[in-house]
Design a protein that fits this description.
heterotrimer; A alpha+beta (435); B alpha+beta (374); C alpha+beta (342); B: 374 residues; alpha+beta; Butyryl-Coa Dehydrogenase, subunit A, domain 1; Butyryl-CoA Dehydrogenase, subunit A, domain 2; Butyryl-CoA Dehydrogenase, subunit A, domain 3; 3 domains; seven-stranded mixed sheet; 11 helices; 16% strand; C: 342 residues; four-stranded antiparallel sheet; 10 strands; 51% helix
């Protein structure tokens, strides 16, 4: 299977000038990684298959600082916001150029800018671009894309998970300001963020989708309290954010009063379509057929017919998922609207990782439950314990299947899902404290 | 060099084939034909060639074909799978046709391809023993040199359309290695027995050969690479057919879920049904992607996975996906899906049968690993 | 032979047995007992106070089933398992000179044949005697008594922090007693069977507690204006989990019913342990999923059930290994006796 580090030949076709520019920049500012020939050398490298990082705070800080610095370097050289408008430091190119850049950058040893880009640059930046006032855009977009400012998403709440529109954080107008009170949860990067995009309830007498307003919150404002959440997989990438009478100026409102749901949809739609990038990372590599075969050999199971068959099944699904992703890229190039492939891809991604981890568990048996000191054995727990998250975070599997069935197959919605009753009258979970 | 049609031409092709098959091979016709002696409608078969040029599609022009490639063939096979068309297309055009092309034997090609391309000759390939495996080192038929040529002896099983074919291409072990032989369907010493099959829309036969005359096709001892090539193309073709069938199951389920009312609402509003349909959609998308990659690799398009890998992946994923959707289709339909009169079981039979062709799951998962270098 | 339960345990002993009302009473008392403390010595003392020995004598199968089910439910210290095995091992061993503990076979045996590697369910004093099975030269199982002081023990780095498991390695030559021959082998077979039945019940208890929490959650949590338990996907998961637990209980009950043969019901006990091991994997997957993101945090209790279930599966044969063994035995002609009569 083609396991080259860079983007495929057909993506690069027609982009020679851009590629040359990117390479020149990368060569000047970073060192190239040794080429990954796909061969597995058992025992080489870090004994870690972490899906969620579990770094001590000082290591975490250093990584974030390095990420900010690299982002600034990119920005100063015209690669900070490849698809963004020039007036805010962007290059006004296409998402294909984005993909080409990412593919080339992957060949170099540079800090991982995910902490800035996954949420802030990928989702909140484009939302500000679409719904922000010129003043807001001028104030925040260059800061975001140059790494000075990190943004987080203040959306989910303890009682508003899958049903995000039933959120309860209040925003009450007071002169030129709004006063925000409530509790947000599952916020990545909140500890490092300067900016938070918050969804609030501004009119409980309207139906739930119609009484929501979006704001940009200064994370250093009085009343903002960030607390880490510990995951069962170890690590605490996510946080709770308590907003206690936090004052936000009206000029930091995004979009119309009570028009926040539209703004939220912009944010959610901007989740970068996973087209081929998902196989990367230690987790993706660990569940690849080469690695799992090496695992089988190392622990004396290479000849187990039943395991071989399951490995074949695993690999067939992974390969087909990769084909699906490549075909989506081709369609994108041809200007065809993406179909349900993106959700299918996402579902398969979670499934492939989960099944891969369970396969490894089967090979390892008791070495997984108790550390015998062997390399590449007990460390599988990092991934195994993270796999339930793949089917829950970023949209549960159940909700995603609902959406596929309703939007693609035209099946009727669950009856009784009420979009017209005023929010105040809706049945909600008991939530201690917040009215 | 094969021609490739653009997307709109492919859509047109799909449309004409679909219209033709709805008119000539709807459910009623399928049920009638599957009970017939030959297992296919000779008039419809002739029309497929004469009106639509389907058999000719992928053969080189020098042999009476149109010189198209796998992109077009995929579309045609998908529609045939969707309609459950009972016909010798897979055996004649795909198996025998690709064997003749891969054998690199100009005389044999000239002798047989025009007939196959025009639909006038029904041909098929006979390889497997009772285990069903396509292993060129374990062929059940033996070829021995005689004064006036070659004689074949042995029993080969699961020969698609073996009882009705005019031309049989038989793989046999010889002192020179595995070789391919052309045998006439009416040859002396040949006994053909139609097998009772799970899938009534696809005929299979057992061939008993006793001193049957065979004409070598291609180099003696050179059948292994030919069979490899045929298998790759056969898996790719079958994958397209399986996608067509799987999609038909998905569409039927979704339509039923939208219309059927129980407990005061369409059953598609119940989450369990919804999720079942979503699961089917995911598998169909995945299967479609796998089949497409293999077809494009077969058509020689750049940037695709190597054919050997893509074909194995397609065979595995499409077999599993078709079986899954066909089973779930019955489930969504509830009791009615379980009746003889409802078409769901016909798709299930075709799905199960297809899964078991060319050595079944042991075969395809093994090939996937093998071609991934494991 | 399988009675339909009207209470939480299923009396299947051959004797008069405990009546359902008594079973319910005892279950309640045990639940209170474990609520008081899950610490091993406190539990032992409380059981003695309850007159547990008499209860066991009256109906061993109900008593053991109830005890271990509640122990599992409460995520209590698993050490009480030792008593079940020692009960059957002590009669073939010399009189003890101090406290005894079972050294459970480590799933990954020591590379060096002269070393015994095993797992202790808790820390032991230097004067404790460890009882372990060993493969003798002739391939038969023998029993050895080893002084704890002769071994090196390390904290077993597992992912269940609620236990105090130790990994122990002792030279076999340090044994103070060795028992070989059919009597010893059979004693271990019977002890292992008894242990597997108890563990299967404990796993059922863990699953039931996890399931109860999941059901409470899906009943209370409201999304889209209704409890998420009203959504079919959730209901079906809960049903499947319930079936898995019920099947486990049935196989345990059947294992007890078969317990009177020479092997102590080894075949059925292995099946019960296998079934329980598979059930915990299935049930806990469902309960984690319906708890959504909350279930992924350390604040939620669910991870404790996940880790305990996995640990109990591992003792005396994890479900994957047992599945292989059962399959291999069936293929070599072992009579597949139906375990549960439908």
């Amino acid at each position: 299977m083609s396991t080259d580090n860079g983007p495929s030949a057909e993506v690069l076709d027609g982009m020679e000038d851009f590629v040359a520019e990117v390479r020149a920049f990368l060569e000047a500012h970073a060192t190239r990684l040794p080429v990954d020939d796909g061969a597995v050398e058992w025992g080489r490298g870090e004994d870690s298959i972490a899906y969620f990082p579990d770094d001590p705070p000082d290591v975490d800080e250093r990584k974030v600082t390095a990420a900010r610095e690299w982002q600034k370097t990119r920005y100063d050289n015209g690669f900070g916001w490849i698809t963004g408008p020039a007036e805010y430091g962007g290059r006004a190119l296409t998402s294909l150029h984005d993909m080409v850049y990412d593919g080339l950058e992957a060949e170099y040893d540079v800090p991982d800018t995910g902490v800035l880009s996954l949420i802030g640059l990928g989702m909140i930046g484009p939302t500000i671009l679409t719904h922000g006032t010129p003043e807001i855009k001028r104030r925040h977009l260059p800061a975001l894309y140059s790494g000075r400012s990190i943004a987080c998403q203040l959306f989910s709440e303890p009682a508003a998970g899958s049903d995000l529109a039933s959120l309860e954080t209040k925003a009450v107008r007071d002169g030129d300001e709004w006063v925000l009170t409530g509790q947000k949860v599952w916020t990545s990067v909140a500890r490092h963020a300067q900016l938070g995009m918050a969804l609030t309830r501004t009119d409980p007498d309207k139906p739930k989708h119609r009484g929501i307003t979006a704001f940009l919150v200064d994370m250093s404002a009085p009343g903002v309290d960030v607390r880490p959440l510990r995951q069962m997989s170890g690590g605490s990438e996510f946080n709770e954010v308590f907003l206690d009478d936090v004052r936000v100026p009206d000029d930091h409102r995004l979009g119309e009063v009570d028009g926040g749901w539209t703004v939220a949809l912009t944010t959610l739609m901007n989740e970068r379509a996973s087209v081929g990038g998902e196989g990367a990372g230690p987790a993706g590599k660990a569940v690849s057929v080469g690695f799992l075969a090496a695992l089988m050999r190392e622990f004396g199971q290479a000849d187990d017919a039943a395991l071989r068959r399951r490995l074949g099944e695993l690999h067939a699904d992974q390969a087909a998922t990769a084909y699906l992703n490549r075909q989506a890229v081709r369609r994108m190039r041809a200007g065809v609207q993406p179909g349900p492939e993106a959700s299918v891809s996402k579902l398969m991604y979670g499934q492939n990782l989960t099944r891969g981890a369970h396969f490894a568990a089967e090979v390892l048996g008791p070495r997984l439950a108790a550390d015998t000191g062997a390399w590449g054995a007990y460390s599988w727990n990092e991934l195994l314990l993270a796999t339930p998250a793949l089917r829950i975070l970023g949209g549960t599997e159940e909700i995603m299947k609902n959406i596929l069935a309703e939007r693609v197959l035209g099946l009727p919605k669950e009856p009784g899902i009420d979009t017209r009753t005023p929010f105040r009258e809706l049945r909600r979970s008991h939530q201690g404290g917040t009215p | 060099m094969s021609e490739t049609a653009g997307q709109s031409e492919l859509d047109d092709l799909r449309g004409s084939v679909r219209d033709f098959l709805s008119a000539k091979s709807g459910e009623e016709q399928v049920r009638r034909v599957m009970e017939s002696e030959t297992g296919y409608d000779e008039a419809v078969w002739a029309q497929m060639a004469d009106q639509l040029g389907l058999q000719q599609l992928v053969f080189p022009e020098e042999h009476g074909g149109y010189g198209f490639g796998f992109a077009e063939l995929s579309v045609v096979l998908q529609e045939m799978g969707r309609a459950l068309l009972p016909s010798p297309f897979l055996s004649s055009v795909v198996l025998a046709g690709s064997a003749l092309l891969a054998a690199d034997d100009a005389a044999a090609a000239a002798a047989h391809l025009p007939g196959i391309a025009s639909g006038k000759t029904i041909a098929t390939l006979a390889v497997a023993g009772e285990s069903g495996s396509w292993d060129p080192t374990a062929l059940p038929v033996v070829g021995t040199r005689a004064d006036d040529g070659w004689r074949l002896g042995g029993t080969t099983w699961f020969v698609l359309d073996g009882a009705t074919a005019d031309l049989l291409l038989v793989a046999a072990t010889t002192d020179a290695g595995p070789s391919l032989f052309a045998v006439s369907g009416t040859a002396a010493g040949l006994t053909r027995t139609a097998l009772r099959t799970l899938d009534p829309t696809r005929r299979q036969a057992r061939l008993d050969l006793d001193g049957v005359v065979g004409t070598p096709v291609g180099a003696l001892g050179g059948a292994a690479p030919v069979l490899d090539r045929v298998l790759d193309l056969a898996m790719t073709a079958l994958a397209a057919e399986q996608v067509g069938g799987a999609r038909a199951c998905l569409e039927t389920s979704a339509a039923y879920a939208r219309d059927r009312v129980q407990f005061g609402r369409p059953i598609g509003s119940f989450q369990a049904v919804k999720h079942k349909c979503a699961d089917m959609l995911v598998r169909v998308q995945l299967a479609d992607a796998a089949a497409q990659e293999a077809a494009e690799a077969a058509a020689g398009l750049p940037g695709r996975a190597p054919l050997a890998e893509a074909a194995a992946v397609a065979h595995a994923v499409c077999s599993e996906s078709y079986l899954f959707t066909a089973a779930e289709n019955i489930q969504v339909h509830g009791g009615i899906g379980f009746t003889w009169e409802h078409p769901a079981h016909l798709y299930f039979r075709r799905a199960k049968s297809s899964q078991l062709l060319f050595g079944g799951p042991a075969g395809y998962f093994g090939r996937v690993l093998d071609r991934a270098g494991v | 032979m399988i009675t339909s339960p009207t209470s939480t345990a299923e009396p299947t002993g051959d004797g008069p047995g405990l009546d359902p009302a008594t079973v319910e009473l005892l279950t309640g008392s045990l639940r209170e007992l474990f609520a008081e403390s899950t610490d091993a010595s406190a539990v032992s003392a409380a059981l003695a106070e309850l007159g547990w020995t008499e209860v066991v004598a009256a109906d061993p199968s109900s008593a053991t089933t109830i005890l271990f089910t509640e122990q599992g439910r409460a995520l209590a210290d698993p050490r009480i398992l030792d008593d079940v095995l020692l009960d059957l091992l002590d009669p073939v061993l010399p009189a003890s000179h101090g406290p005894r503990a079972v050294l459970y076979p480590h799933p990954v045996p020591a590379e060096d044949a002269g070393t015994v590697r095993g797992v202790l369910l808790g820390a032991v004093g230097e004067d404790t005697e460890l009882v372990a099975p060993r493969r003798g030269a002739d391939g038969a199982t023998e029993l050895v008594v080893l002084p704890a002081a002769a071994g090196s023990s390390t904290d077993l780095t597992g992912f269940d922090p609620g236990t105090a498991l130790r990994l122990v390695e002792i030279p076999a030559a340090a044994a103070t007693a060795r028992r070989t021959g059919p009597a010893a082998a059979q004693a271990w077979t019977r002890a292992e069977a008894a242990g597997r039945r108890a563990l299967a019940s404990a796993i059922a208890g863990v699953c039931e507690a996890a399931l109860a929490q999941a059901i409470a959650h899906v009943t209370a949590r409201v999304q889209y204006s209704k409890p998420i338990g009203a959504f079919q996907a959730v209901r079906h998961r809960m049903s499947e989990a319930h079936v898995a637990v019920t099947a486990t209980r049935r196989t345990v009950a059947a294992a007890w019913a078969a317990g009177t043969d020479a092997t102590g019901g080894a075949w059925e006990a292995r099946i019960a342990k296998y079934r329980a091991g598979r059930a915990q994997a299935e049930v806990l997957r469902h309960t984690v999923q319906v708890l959504g993101a909350m279930g992924l945090t350390l604040e939620s209790d669910m991870h404790r059930f996940v880790t305990r279930g996995a640990l109990l599966d591992l003792l005396l044969g994890d479900h994957r290994s047992l599945g292989q063994e059962i399959g291999a035995d069936l293929l070599t002609g072992a009579a597949a006796r139906p375990v549960v009569e439908i």
